[in-house]
Amino acid sequence: MTALENLVKELTSGGVAIIDLTETLREEYPTITLPPEFGQASAFKKDVISQYDDRGPMWFWHNISVSEHTGTHFDAPIHWVSGKDLPNNTVDTIPPADFIAPACVVNCSNEVAEDRDFLLTRDFLINWEETFGKIPRGSWLFMRSDWRKIADPNNYANIQEDGAHHPGPDEECVKWMIEERDVLGFGTECIGTDAGIAMSFDPPLPCHYFMHGAGKYGLQCMTNLDLLPATGSVIVCPPLKIEGGSGSPLRVLALVPKLS
Asked: How distant, in Å, are the alpha carbons of 12, 17, 123, 147, 242 from that of 115?
């Protein structure tokens, strides 16, 4: 039996489970909001073209509009100024092999429950490795915060009078993930890969700046990371093949071996 035949057998028998890490894209889904002097991302919108009526008696379909960075979405290197001159930096030119990779899931949910501004650090990851092993080269690093369970559903970005407050990595942590572990990218359940307070860092938003400058990727607005093991899952996350696209909403799936 070939490896692919064995995978199909395991999927069919339930030996490998499929976990959906994707939020449902809907019109009320929150978008990233920037200061008013900057351009703003559009919210998801859908309009019925026809629904078994005189506009189309046998078919139902929508026109949709959405920014590349709304809902559960993928960030390509060209999304940030640091990655604008890299080769294969758009969603249509990224090597397809990069859309299937293992994941390490770092559970920070207790820390985030205590502190919405929790910063993931290099030392936190080194301590995590003592239990779960070294983070493999070319893997995703997912920060599990259980954010959907913690955040106000009417204020998903947790924007307060002094700005947004949600967790993310600090600058040293991002550099370590890139330089010492050569991760494929960083993923989170929050509305952005950077912490809410990271606009005040130097450089601002270091996860975007260093990850994309190194040709790495981002995933955000995921859910169900609490259903994944710390290691052993495989992530399938191809974005839409938008010409010159900086990112894309997408469906993120995890293949997880069923534990006996």
From this structure: 42, 33, 18, 12, 37
Judged by phi (left if over 0) then psi (alpha if -120 to 50, else beta), residue 87 lies in: beta
Residue by residue, what is the 3-state secondary structure of 22-62?
Answer: ECCCCCCCCCCCCCCCCCCCCCCEEEEEEEEECCEEEEEEE
Residues annotated as catalytic are: 79
Provide CB contacts within 8 A for 1, sequence distance 6+: 9
C-alpha dist (Å) from residue 3 to 8, 10, 19, 190, 258: 9, 10, 21, 35, 17
Tens place of pLDDT per residue across the chain (260 aa): 799 999 999 999 999 999 999 999 999 998 888 888 999 999 999 999 999 999 999 999 999 999 999 999 999 999 999 999 999 999 999 999 999 999 999 999 999 999 999 999 999 999 999 999 999 999 999 999 999 998 888 888 888 888 889 999 999 999 999 999 999 999 999 999 999 999 999 999 999 999 999 999 999 999 999 999 999 999 999 999 999 999 999 999 999 998 65
Task: Supply 209's token pair.
Answer: 């700046």
**Phi, psi (degrees; rounded to nearest 5) at 75:** -105, 125
Residue with tokens 């899952």: 233
Whole-Å CA distances, 19 to 6, 251, 254: 19, 11, 5
Q: Please list the helix, strand and coil fractions of the chain in percent, rounded to the nearest 5, in that order.
A: 25, 30, 45
What's the pTM value of the predicted model, to 2 decimals?
A: 0.95
CA distance 34 to 31: 10
Are 174 and 205 in contact by the 8 Å Cβ rule? The answer is no
Alpha helices in the chain (DSSP H): 3-13, 109-114, 122-132, 147-150, 171-179, 206-213
